[in-house]
Amino acid sequence: MNTIWLFEDVNLFGLLCPHKFKAYKNSHQFDAYKKSDYIYFEEDAANKVYLIEKGKVKIGYYNEDGVEVIKAILRKGELFGEKAILGDSRRDEFAQSIDNNTSICPVGVQTLHELMRDNQTFSFKIYKFIGLKFKKLERRLQLLLFKDAKTRLKEFIDELCVDYGYNCVKTGDHIIKHPYTQKDIASLIGISRPTLNTLLNDLKENKIIDFNRSEIRILKKSA
């Protein structure tokens, strides 16, 4: 299973967290957050990147009408705030914990640049991750701007299948075991939760999918 968010199936927390490196171990710390706590706000100084040890984090911004737009929902092992590596001095998004027990490892940009300078392979992987992440975000924004709600949901399910899916040998169905709540999915594709429920039930009635809280099953088409 391959995922664009975790390059080459690598847990970025395990790769980057300073406790893995002797020179930085003594100054390493974790920050704890409860649900709805902000890790940073728009316009905050961008001098760190962040790794998720556990919990979930929402990345988003507010549009001109003050409406919240969700860019991503990240989980254990993932990196955010990475634009600071490229030289951004201010945040253009917010990061907010959406779990009651979120643990974050902050890494100073200078520390990360030192690690990248000392290890060319490590540096290549970081830039590869950033490039792939931007491509995925661009695709999601295109969905929000140019596709209707039903198409956005179907394409998002296809994306989940790539990231979290596997084939059921017995039935031939594609089974997707994913970490998102229905509220998460609705936020990510820009629709209300009632609209999402209606669309999911419509797909279920038409025998395209079946689903429960943690699993979506794309049903094998009859010959």
Features:
4-stranded antiparallel sheet, 223 residues, Arc Repressor Mutant, subunit A, 2 domains, 6 helices
Describe this structure in words.
- The chain has 223 residues and is of the alpha+beta class.
- The chain has 2 domains: 12-144, Sandwich (Jelly Rolls); 147-218, Winged helix-like DNA-binding domain superfamily/Winged helix DNA-binding domain (Arc Repressor Mutant, subunit A), CATH 1.10.10.
- Helix content is 35%, strand content 24%.
- A hairpin with a 3-residue loop joins strand 11 (209-211) and strand 12.
- Helix 2 crosses helix 3 (120-146) and helix 5 crosses helix 6 (193-205).
Globally, the shape reads globular
Strand content: 15-25%
Q: How large is the radius of gyration?
A: 19 Å
Number of helices in the DSSP assignment: 6
Helix content: 25-40%
Top CATH class of the largest domain: Mainly Beta
Low-confidence stretches: 1-11
Mean pLDDT: 81
**Structural class by helix and strand composition:** alpha+beta
Main sheet overview:
4 strands, antiparallel
CATH topology of the largest domain: Jelly Rolls
What is the string of SSEs from the N terminus onward? HEEEEEEEEHHHEEHHEE
Report the strand count. Answer: 12
Instruction: Output the CATH homologous superfamily of the largest domain.
Output: Jelly Rolls
Total count of domains: 2
Order the strands across the largest sheet as they lie in space: 1-8-3-6
